[in-house]
Protein: Sigma 54-interacting transcriptional regulator
Organism: Nannocystis punicea
Amino acid sequence: MDSIATLTPAHAPGDDCAQDVAGVTMTIVGHPDPGRVGETAAVEFDARQRVPLSRREPLFAAAGQPGRPLEDPHLSRSPIYLSFKAGEMPVWTDPAHAPSEIRPLHGAQGRAWYVGLRRRVGLLIELGLRAAPPREQHGLVGVSAATARLREQIEATAGSELPVLLSGETGTGKELAAQAIHALGRRRQQPLVAVNLSAIPDSTAASQLFGHARGAFTDAARAHDGYFLQADGGTLFLDEIGDASIGLQVQLLRALEQREIQPVGGRVRAVDVRLITATDADLDDAVAAGRFRKALLFRLCGQTLKLLPLRDRPADIAVQLVHFLDRALDGLGRREHLRLRSWTDSPWLDLEAVEAALNARWPGNSRELRAVASQAALLGANQPKIVLATSSPPAPASASRSTSAVANAAAEEPARALTESAIRATLAAHQHSVRGAARALQVAPNTLYARMRELGIPLAGALSDEELAAAHEASGGNVTMMARALGVSLRGIQRRLGRAR
Ligand SMILES: Nc1ncnc2c1ncn2[C@@H]1O[C@H](COP(=O)(O)OP(=O)(O)OP(=O)(O)O)[C@@H](O)[C@H]1O
């Protein structure tokens, strides 16, 4: 049986009757050729509620590509069958020839399983038939049904002018989603200004957001346009909206309802801004506790997009793992690690590492996965196989919440657009010089250092001797390459090397 062309949507979680389902969707999560991770096959059940698996069938395909079989010669040529019964784990019809284990997946409510084939190929099997989504679209990497749905919601949202509220744990991609909504909407030629409210102290929040007139307060030697005016005609992305003080919430409500703002000590001004907000907190709880104004929440959630934790999107874990490894290996000039070596050699990215990633909890979600993948690429660049340190310490309650260090530093000087992407883009534009980026972002270097530590953005001074040694070995001692691979400045790495000697 081959992949089929006519598809019915995968059922919503909670429908647990396999008899109602026409078949399953299989996604490759581990393969000797890592380039195949993310390919899917939608396979109809036969008359006995079974699907065949072999080296030759079904055919797996990336979106828009022709289908290919699994090919691995370690798998049998003749099919073995997985049999499905409502409410039960699937079973091999011939257990004596079973190619290996089947395990239920975390959070899948009896509708998805991991199947390992001869410790060579890993498959995710979900009830329901669905088409293969692109591995990367609108800047979002992933092939899970949740990511496909999120992209559809982003497209639908981009066409409207309503405010959008993005909710999800830290690192799930809320800022990426905001960027995609802006990039697809009619305001795309206008600015997108991203601001993290948790990085702005209450005392200066009004003047930073709404601006101030010259002489409005002691230090206001010049008039200042706030973020709202900087985003005029475009989009303002307010991250950590749950951290806005009640006073600020009142002003935000006014800006939304009357489309005007009042700079501190200045005249009321009209402003045309599409607002996208994000939170990892439960704002309904915050309303119940009197910390968030119901009227503002009502206004903000014109459209609400929920981003699932990464651990509930196993197909995305595998695809993002390969994506982040590829990027890190590219920096080291070692992308060949992610190509099929030969069917006889064991792959650099083996199934053990993939399974470890699928089983990890990823409290810091994709941000944590990216950091773990970058470190694994570095440490494993000269090794026969990757070792994935998935036991990375859980992210703090929220990796993007302000720490007292950030709050204190921010209090010294206005913090500007301190979101992860803004910092990374500015660093890249300044050869990773933190001082240069801090100047461009108009923040004190200490504010930027603290925020970078908080977001897990690499700093040369914080690199361990082990990381340094691995990068040194992987780059053959080329310091420029080391700096590129580690994502830090050349000067920083030279200083750090001096210290290490
Ligand atoms: N679907 C995805 N595809 C590729 N990269 C992703 C995806 N989701 C998140 N990331 C990466 O993870 C990191 C964190 O993403 P982002 O800043 O958008 O998350 P967030 O939910 O806004 O986090 P926070 O709440 O902490 O601000 C970024 O480097 C981003 O590129």
About this structure: The domain at 145-306 is CATH 3.40.50.300 (Rossmann fold).
